[in-house]
């Protein structure tokens, strides 16, 4: 049975929310489709990625560089290779950045370039592998490739019961 959520609608001529109108949107679960078996993990992945930190730092791009490859580019100006860590944990690509405090006795009158840390996570589908990572001009490029799945036809014997 679909779950329902109440979402406020925006007026077409305004950027404010309309308080008098409400639209009901169905939240479909994979349990709503009994012929789709074994996809519970996908539903959990979608929920986990929706809940993960959606802050905007650092900004990133995702490009499709060929039919079977992708490139994630993060703007990491001020970070060096030693400040960054890239790992794959439970089918998630995790990119972390942590800058050391390199003040060296300097006195800042204004510090607008913050030395802040970050963590970006990307959920990887089965068959997507992380290739190389390259740092150039303040951009971190992480290349991904997707292997083509084999077409498998399996015949199941029926035993007499």
> What is the general shape?
elongated
Secondary structure: number of strands: 9
Low-confidence sequence ranges: 14-19
Helix content: under 10%
> Oligomeric status of the shown chains?
single chain
Name the helix and strand elements from N-terminus to C-terminus, one letter apiece: EEHEEEEEEE
Count of helix runs: 1
Major sheet strand order: 3-4-9-8
- Round the mean pLDDT to the nearest integer and report it: 80
What does this structure look like?
By secondary structure, the chain is mostly beta strands. It has one helix at residues 40-51; strands at residues 3-10, 17-27, 60-66, 69-75, 84-89, 92-97, 118-123, 128-136, 139-146. It starts with a strand and ends in a 15-residue tail after the last strand.
In short:
The protein has 161 residues and is mainly β.
What structural keywords apply?
elongated, 1 helix, 3-stranded antiparallel sheet, 4-stranded antiparallel sheet, 161 residues, mainly beta
SSE arrangement:
Elements: E1 3-10, E2 17-27, H1 40-51, E3 60-66, E4 69-75, E5 84-89, E6 92-97, E7 118-123, E8 128-136, E9 139-146
